What we know:
single chain; about 300 residues; 7-stranded mixed beta sheet; 8 helices; binds D-malate; binds manganese (II) ion; binds zinc ion
Amino acid sequence: MKIRVLGAAAGGGFPQWNCACANCQLARAGSPRVTPRTEDSLAVSHDGSSWFIFNASPSIHAQIAAFPGLHPQNGRVSPIAGIVLTNGDLDHCLGLFSLRESTPLVVYATDAVFRSLVDRNAVARTLQRFEGQLTHRRLDLGVETVLTLRSGEPSGLSITARPAQGKLPIHLDGALAASPEDNVGLWVRESGNPHVAAYVTAAASLVGLRPLLDEASLLFFDGSFWRDDELIALGLGKSRARDMAHLPIGGENGSLAALSNLRTTRKVYMHINNTNPILDSESPERKAVVDAGWTVATDGMEVTL
Ligand code: MLT
Ligand code: MN
Ligand code: ZN
C-alpha cells in the first residue's frame, strides 16, 4: 500500500491567511524552523497508478500539481479513482467542487456526510451536470467497503469507517440532528497485506476508538492542537480543541499520553493547526512528540506499508 500525505495542516492551512501567530509569522518569513503545509488529505494506492484521495481539501489543485502520481497520462482520464470523505467539514470537502471539469467522480461517504454535501446546496449541482458525474458509494459504519477502480474492478484496497466523536460541520450546526455518521475514522486494508493503516484526523476523544487503533500498523492521528485552550490562550478564538472535535496532544489526558502504549509501529500526527507548537522544529513540544516516536506529517511525505 502506497500512501502520500497531500496536506498535513488543519483547515486553515499553514500559514493561515488571516493569522499572525508566532508560527504563521515564522512561515511567512521563510524560517527553516517551520514548513508550510496545505490542508489535511491523503492519497492511497495499491498499484501506484490508481489513487484514492482521503478528503478533498481546498488546496486540491496544488496538491495534485505537486504529485506526479495524480497527473493524467492521456486525454482527460484522472488517476483519481475515488474520493473518500471522513466528515462534511469544508476543509475536507471544498476541493470536490474544484473537480468539476466533467470527469466522473466517485465519492465514498456515510449517508449523513454525503447528504450534507448535496442537500440544500445549489453549488453541488455543478457535480451533477450529467448522469453519472457524481456517484455516491455509501459507507456503513463498521462495514468493510471495497474501493473500486474506474473499470469497476476491485482496487486491492478496502476501507472500514468507524465513528469517532466529532461534530456536524460548522455550517450545519443547529440545522440538522447529530449522528454517529457525521465523523468517521478509516481503517484501510490491502489484499494480501497483513498491515492496516488507520486515518483518524478528527476525534474529540478516544472513547470506543482506543482498542481499534491497535489494529493498525500505521496511524495518522488528529494533531490539530497541543492544548485544549490553545486558541483561547493565544487570544485567537473562543473554542476549546475538544469542542471542535479535536483531542489535544499534550496534557494528562492528551493523545500523546493516551496513545503511548499503542501497538502501532508508525504514528503520525496530521491535520495540524497553525497555532500548534509541534510545527516549530525548535519547540519542546516537537521534541516531546518525536521522543515519543511520533512523526509530524509534512506535505509530500510518503509511506509504503
Ligand atoms: C475542524 O477540523 O475543526 C474544521 O476544519 C473546522 C472548520 O470547518 O473550520
Ligand atoms: Mn478540519
Ligand atoms: Zn497562525
